[in-house]
Design brief:
Layout lengths: L1 H10 L34 E2 L2 E8 L2 E7 L3 E2 L22 E10 L5 E10 L2 E2 L3 E4 L16 E7 L2 E6 L3 E2 L2 E2 L3 E5 L19 E8 L2 E7 L2 E2 L2 E2 L3 E5 L19 E7 L2 E6 L3 E2 L2 E2 L3 E5 L16 E7 L2 E6 L3 E2 L2 E2 L3 E5 L19 E7 L2 E6 L3 E2 L2 E2 L3 E2 L1
Antiparallel strand pairs: 1-4, 2-3, 5-6, 6-7, 6-8, 9-10, 10-13, 11-12, 14-15, 15-18, 16-17, 19-20, 20-23, 21-22, 24-25, 25-28, 26-27, 29-30, 30-33, 31-32
Length: 377
C-alpha cells in the first residue's frame, strides 16, 4: 500500500490531498445472522493501524495489532479545538476524502474534496457547514473532485477536476453564489491537457489567481498559472508561465504586491526557479527571491516577514530542512526555525498560521522534536 501511495503521489501530484490527512480504519463486527445489514457503527472507536486480534469478555473488547492510538471514529473531516486539540462534538460526519476547506467568515466552513455525503445527506464533493456545526442546504453538487476553495464576499470560488458544478457546465473552475450554491456566469474554463485541474486559488481585489495543470484558461493560453478578472473571467495580461518536467502549480499565497507560488515547476516568471518562487503581482516576472527547494512544495503560508513552506523537500533556502521551513520574505533564506518533519514519509501538505502558532498537516509521524501523527502545532 505504501509503495502504491508513493507511486500515486509522484505520478499525479495534483490528486494529492491539499489539507490535513487523518487515517481511518472502519470498525467491523461479525454478524449473528447472515441476513443482518452490515453497516459500520460510527460510534465504535478506531485505531491508527492494523488490528490482528479481537477477544470479548463481558462488556469489554480486547484488541491487539500494529497500532499506537485508539480513539473516536470521526470520519475524514473534523473540527478541532485550537487549545486542547480535541475533536469538537457534533461535527457532521463526511464519507469520503477532504481536499480543501475555507472559512465562510461567520464561523462556518466550506469543504471540498471527493465525497458523497455529509451528516448522512447527499453532498457531492462540496458542502457548507455552519458555525453551529449543522449542514447547510447549500449544494452546488460538483461531478468530480474539488481541490481548492477561496471565499470573497458573497462568492465561493472552486477549483478541481470537475466539469459540472452549481447546475452548470464548468471546466475545473467556477464561481458559486454563497447563498444559493448556483454557478454565476463567471466561466474561465481551464483545459488544454489530458487531465486539466485547478489545484490552487487566491483572491486579491479584482483578481483571482489560479494555479494547477492547464494550458488554457480565461480564453487565453496560460501554462499552469493565471490571473483572472473577477467580473469577466478573462485572463489578464499577467502570464508567469510555469514550466518543467511536471510543472503543476500546487499553492498560491498573495502578500501585498507579491504572489508566492509553489509546486513542481523548474521555471516561472521568466526565470529558473525550482519548486518555489515569488512573482510580481503586476508584471508576473519572478523577483530575486529564490529559496531553491530540491523537491516539490505543496503549501505556503505568509505571516509578516516570514513565508512558511511545506512539501517533499530536504533542502530549501540554502539549508537542510525536512518537509517544512520558514523563509525570510526578503532574502529567501531559511530562518533558524526548523521543526524537521520525520517518519517514513515526512511530507507536509498543509499549513496555517494563527498568531504565534503554525499548524501543519501531512504524512509525518514526528515533528518539532515530538511524536505527532499527521497533524501538529
Amino acid at each position: 500500500m505504501r509503495v502504491q501511495l508513493r507511486h500515486a503521489l509522484k505520478s499525479n501530484p495534483l490528486r494529492v490531498l491539499a489539507h490535513v490527512l487523518l487515517p481511518a480504519v472502519l470498525a467491523c463486527a461479525v454478524a449473528t445472522t447472515a441476513a443482518r445489514a452490515q453497516n459500520a457503527n460510527p460510534n465504535v472507536w478506531m485505531t491508527d493501524g492494523q488490528v490482528n486480534a479481537i477477544a470479548a469478555s463481558g462488556s469489554t473488547i480486547y484488541i491487539g495489532g500494529v497500532f499506537t492510538w485508539v480513539g473516536p471514529n470521526t470520519g475524514c473531516s473534523v473540527g478541532i479545538d485550537a487549545s486542547t486539540g480535541a475533536p469538537l462534538e457534533g461535527w457532521p460526519r463526511v464519507v469520503g476524502t477532504i481536499q480543501c476547506s475555507a472559512p465562510d467568515g461567520a464561523g462556518g466552513w466550506y469543504i471540498g474534496g471527493t465525497f458523497q455525503s455529509v451528516a448522512g445527506v447527499p453532498r457531492p464533493n462540496v458542502a457548507h457547514i455552519r458555525a453551529d456545526m449543522s449542514l447547510d442546504a447549500w449544494n452546488p453538487g460538483a461531478n468530480n473532485s474539488v481541490l481548492t476553495l477561496a471565499v470573497s464576499g458573497t462568492t465561493v470560488y472552486a477549483g478541481g477536476y470537475f466539469t459540472s458544478i452549481g447546475g452548470q457546465s464548468r471546466n475545473c473552475i467556477a464561481a458559486l453564489d454563497a447563498s444559493t450554491g448556483l454557478a454565476t456566469p463567471w466561466n474561465p474554463s481551464a483545459g488544454g491537457v489530458t487531465y486539466p485541474a485547478v489545484a490552487s486559488l487566491a483572491v486579491s481585489g479584482s483578481t483571482v489567481y489560479a494555479g494547477g495543470s492547464f494550458t488554457s484558461i480565461g480564453g487565453q493560453s496560460r501554462s499552469n498559472i493565471a490571473a483572472l478578472d473577477t467580473v469577466s473571467g478573462r485572463a489578464t495580461s499577467w502570464d508567469p508561465s510555469a514550466s518543467g518536467i511536471n510543472p503543476g502549480v500546487l499553492c498560491l499565497a498573495v502578500s501585498g504586491t507579491t504572489v508566492y507560488v509553489g509546486g513542481s515547476f523548474s521555471s516561472i516568471g521568466g526565470q529558473s526557479r525550482n519548486y518555489i518562487a515569488a512573482l510580481d503581482a503586476s508584471t508576473g516576472v519572478a523577483t530575486g527571491w529564490n529559496p531553491g527547494a530540491n523537491s516539490r512544495v505543496n503549501c505556503l503560508a505568509v505571516s509578516g516577514t516570514t513565508v512558511y513552506a511545506g512539501g517533499f523537500f530536504t533542502i530549501i533556502g540554502g539549508q537542510s530542512r525536512s518537509g517544512i521551513s520558514a523563509l525570510d520574505a526578503g532574502t529567501g533564506l531559511a530562518t533558524s526555525w526548523d521543526p524537521s518533519a520525520g517518519g517514513a514519509y515526512p511530507w507536509v501538505y498543509s499549513l496555517a498560521v494563527s498568531g504565534t502558532t503554525v499548524y501543519a498537516g501531512g504524512s509525518f509521524t514526528s515533528i518539532g522534536g515530538h511524536c505527532r501523527n499527521y497533524i501538529a502545532a
